[in-house]
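How a chain folds remains the central question behind the approach discussed here. No coordinates are needed to read the tokens, only the vocabulary itself. For completeness, the protein is quoted in full, as a sequence line and a line of structure tokens:
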Amino acid sequence: MTLALRYLAHSEIGLVRRNNQDSAYTSPTMLMVADGMGGAAAGDLASAIAIRELQEADGPLTGESMLTAIDAAIAKASRSISDLIDDDPALDGMGSTVCGFMFDGNQIGLANIGDSRAYRYRDGVLTRLTRDHSWVQTLVDEGRITEAEALEHPHRSLILRVINGSTQHLPDLELVDVQVGDRLLVCSDGLCGMVTDAVIASEMDGDLPKVLESLIAVAHAEGGLDNITIILADVVEGEPSGTPEVLGAAAVIDPDDISENTVALPAGQLVEVAPDPVAGETARYAPTTKHRLRTSLTVLLAILLPLGLIGGAGYGWYHYTQGQYYLGANAEQVAIYQGIPEPVFNLPLSKVIQDDQTRVADLPGYYQEQVRAKALTAGSLTAAQRILDTLRVKAEQCIKQRSGWHSPSPSPSPTPPASQTPSGRPSGSASPTAKPGATPSAPTSIASPQPTDTSTPAAPTEC
């Protein structure tokens, strides 16, 4: 049986923003959304670069080769962004999410980095197929806040992984089986960041144009505070149909001509500005400051030193850095540092202000990488201590889990067979204990890493 996709897509500015930093690409074999960020620092250009590389990777691939192609395209986009920032420091701060999949007629090759999302709607149940790489998602996973509370959390815009030129920010990749009747949704946080999964699920029944219209209306009803990009696709029996299409910023931006790196509103279109969305973009990119700080420091000091302004400007900059904090490794333990990770002219701009007994090696692999890369930043000591509290909990969980791996289970004692009635069946008073030689029931195990019908998948913090 040949499976195919029947799809619709939409990308718009929303009701508040002044330009569309979202981009999207659709074809019979690929559906992708990229949500650019960075405010004035060309988030639209970043998403256009991501979509350009993904479009070039599109083709008749199957199985693992789909994941390989997507991974290579995202890595190439990240290198392109890094090169642009090196050439023009004014672009520092740009980045993009990527979420979507390739389709080979049997399964999808799913990719995600950032906080855009992919869903599957099957038999009336909406399943989130991706996990947000955001701070609030870790809080939801740990049960500290609800999904609804995450929508209002003051740090809901903080993203832990994104395409921004860093080689340490890698996408999640997975093969997912699909079947006839599945409905797939890929969207930017202009939809999924405004409403809960339950609200989205309530709008998923009906034909594709009606559902698309309903989802757009839901996002508008919540204020339309962000760009809105939505792709809907039905898995059907039949032959592939449709032509490739590029939407959003990527449809009007040439990534090779950065002189035109913003998409303005059409002439005459007025927008009433609500709570500052550019500030939200700045906060959204806050956790990934390593490249930005390095470039800014180099450029700033290169200008100030020759001009003889190093005294006043140097003091002001140093004062700023001492209001920043990050989690890093101090020997084998986790510690809180005050300042910024990168030295200037071999002069350190950070110092340990709080040691902790938590060992880096006891953390889940993902958080070990974040600590060693000095990627867990905070704007205050209190915020840094909250991150440290979270790391302690995760380390304790891993210590217990790893201890269980090495502790031999006690051998079960033989159990006498249950008394039998003449008919050969156990009597009503017989114990439910298994008879000798019978296969013991397997203990409940953690589900294999495949999509489950839960609104919030578990965090990738396996020990």
Observations:
- The radius of gyration is 26 Å.
- The first strand starts at residue 3 and ends at 12.
- Residues 289-404 form one domain.
- The first helix runs from residue 43 to 57.
